[in-house]
Amino acid sequence: ADHQTKYFDRSSVPNPERSQWLPDGRVNAAFVSLARNEDLRDMVQSVQRLERRFNHKHHYPWVFLNDEEFNEEFMRRINETASGPVEFGVIPKEHWQMPETVDLQKMHDNWNKLKENDILYADSESYRHMCRFESGFFYRHPLVKKYEYYWRVEPSVDFWCDLDFDPFAYMKQNNKVYGFTITVTEYPETISTLWENTRNFLKQHPDTLHPNNSLNFISDNNGETYNNCHFWSNFEIARVDFWESDAYTKYFDHLDKSNGFFYERWGDAPVHSIAAALFTDRDSIHFFNEIGYWHPFSGHCPLDEPTLAKCECSPYDSIDHNGWSCLNKYYDAFKIPYPANWNLYRG
Ligand code: GDP
Ligand code: MN
Predict the structure, then answer these.
(1) How many whole angstroms separate alpha carbon 329 and alpha carbon 302?
(2) Fewer CB atoms inside 10 A, N or C side of the chain?
(3) Residue 35 covered by a domain
(4) Catalytic positions (predicted)?
């Protein structure tokens, strides 16, 4: 076993220059969106909503990535909508390409099985490139790499509450590594062997497991099986260097070598979440309750009255009390008290 690859130590800062506060008190951070030209309308919606709720007061930059060139209209409309500087980047081919080791026959047989089970994106190759890119490559893009923190924003999302604080600053001040608003269970059919591969990785690299990990959030039997709980990564505020760490780099390589992103349909959400639960301190994970958020077709709306007063949602809109949600498990695993009026809204 490899006892050299260590877990992620959030107090160590490999790139001090990148991690400095800006002179105006902001964090060296940006919104990062992966999108296609045809996502323009839905992307403008997301940018507009986030600008109105938060960024019109801060003017944080936006980064847009695409596996093809963005067209003029896309860049013009986004530039008109964003209040901060905008950069557009193309993804290198090597980061959006099927490895030669993929057995195509085996892959298509598996896709057909997923299709028979009505799994979303069962036979989509591009969706798999997207999941693999978001798992292992987005943070290597030069436009993203220069930031300390990023906030992932997808097309067609909405923000339900006025934010009177800076989530980036909160993350940095409190030494947080990974922030989320929604946690749900993954479709097990899409990740049949993800946990098996994760366990093998841990056997080979036992020192990547953080001594104060949150394995109890993602497993109900001390690691024997995965309970499918994950943070919904279409919203994500995180430290770029977590993904650059030795532990995560080795983990992604290990997963990628098995070609499970292609044979199955591993999402970046369970991959990121498992990594966050295993390789970093449980205290570095943060639930942004105040950020009311919608991505089709689920949302999070805060329950407590002072927070809710700044929102245009109802707690009944929340997935948090639904059987798919892992928020109750999160509260239990992290020993966080339930909100006072939790029982009021229980289905
Ligand atoms: P879902 O949220 O899982 O249903 O998947 P989405 O269709 O929203 O895709 C996730 C993210 O990846 C979004 O930001 C999309 O714009 C982006 N995306 C998905 N497929 C592609 C693709 O083929 N090319 C590019 N450039 N972006 C993609
Ligand atoms: Mn989406």
Answers:
(1) 17
(2) C
(3) yes
(4) 236 (nucleophile)
pLDDT per residue as tens digits for the range 4-27: 999 999 999 999 999 999 999 999
Q: Is the ipTM of this complex over 0.90?
A: yes
Residue 119 counted as domain residue: yes
The answer, yes or no, to whether the previous bond of 297 is cis (omega within 30 of 0) is yes
Domain span at 194: 29-345
- Cα separation, 248 vs 211, whole angstroms: 16
Ligand 1 nearest atom to the CA of residue 33, by list position = 14
Task: State pTM to two decimals.
Answer: 0.98
| Domain total of the chain | 1
What is the distance in A from the centroid of ligand 1 to the CA of 332?
Answer: 32
What are the tokens at 338? 């339930």
Per-residue pLDDT tens over the stretch 76-98 = 999 999 999 999 999 999 999 99
Residue 2: inside a domain: no
| Protein residue closest via CA to atom 24 of ligand 1 | 36
Beta bridge partners of 29: 149
Atom 18, ligand 1: residue with shortest CA distance: 35
Within 8 A by CB and 6+ apart from 291, the residues are 159, 161, 163, 167, 181, 235, 300
Q: Residue 337 has which token pair?
A: 């008290």
Question: Which of 148, 154, 236, 264 is an active site residue?
Answer: 236
> Rounded CA gap, 37 and 41, in Å?
9
Tell me the C-alpha distance between 279 and 201, whole Å: 12
